[in-house]
TrEMBL record:
It comes from Macaca fascicularis. The keyword Signal applies. Residues 1-108 form the Ig-like domain. This is T cell receptor alpha variable 3. GO terms for cellular component: T cell receptor complex. Pfam families: V-set.
Length: 108
């Protein structure tokens, strides 16, 4: 079974300050992890993914996320937040086990 949790309902930071959107997960096999963003009145946009390799993943719009296997986390980070970063952020996981379904959760 797959489970994704974004523990914070809302994240508030001042423009120019670091931004972190937390995500933890639970999977049976090895995780494929994804972040998406949905800006107001727009569709879902892909930000970044972790499949294998380097734990630090660089994505679109200056975002990055670090895969932490021991803490089962994949937190989304941006060094300097912009007003335009105000959006819904979706963390998603897919299990590598054959036939396993994915899970997702979204937060502001």
């Amino acid at each position: 079974a797959q489970l994704v949790t974004q523990p914070e309902d809302q994240v508030t930071v001042a423009e120019g300050n670091p931004l972190t959107v937390k995500c933890t997960y639970s999977v049976s096999g090895n995780p494929y992890l994804f972040w998406y963003v949905q800006c107001p009145n727009q569709g879902l946009q892909f930000l970044l993914k972790y499949i294998t390799g380097d734990n630090l993943v660089k994505g679109s719009y200056g975002f990055e996320a670090e895969f932490n296997k021991s803490q089962t986390s994949f937190h989304l980070k941006k060094p300097s937040a912009l007003v335009s970063d105000s959006a819904l952020y979706f963390c998603a996981v897919r299990d590598t086990l054959i036939g396993a379904a994915g899970g997702a959760e979204h937060k502001l």
